[in-house]
Write a structure and sequence with these properties.
The protein is α+β, with helices and mostly antiparallel strands. The protein has helices spanning 16-23, 54-64, and strands spanning 4-8, 29-33, 46-51, 68-69, 72-73, 75-78. It has two helices and six strands; from the N terminus they run E-H-E-E-H-E-E-E.
Length: 119
């Protein structure tokens, strides 16, 4: 049973403790995940909060969605499961290998529709 919520439009000053306190008014909070930017370490403006019951989740969504919190109007929805991403084997990109097939060289003009190859 999914009891995880997406919490959006958070202030960048929001902490996990702030979210635990806010959501505990509507039931037991079992997990708070507040993603941060890899480079700056600052919160990214959204979080995922998991509560211990469907009733608690519904109460939190109904009671807090659209409410002002730390100067921002919250967006709260039931979290959707993560979609599977295709496994590309990691890595990616890299180099300028000739993986685009025969693109021809400077003098390879191909068929130019009756024009003579003047170069």
């Amino acid at each position: 049973m999914n009891t995880k919520m997406y919490v959006g439009n958070l202030s960048f000053d929001t902490t996990e403790a702030d979210l635990r306190e806010l959501f505990s008014q509507h039931g037991g909070v079992t997990e708070v995940f507040l993603p941060t930017d890899r480079e700056s370490g600052r919160p990214r403006g959204f979080a995922f909060v998991t509560v211990d019951s469907v009733e608690g989740m519904n109460a939190a969504i109904n009671g807090l969605n659209g409410q002002s919190f730390l100067g921002r109007n919250l967006t709260i929805n039931e979290a959707r499961p993560r979609e599977e991403r295709p496994a590309y084997g990691g890595g990616g990109g890299g180099g300028r290998g000739d993986s685009r097939g025969d693109r021809g060289g400077r003098n390879d003009r191909g068929d130019r529709g009756g024009r003579s190859n003047r170069y």
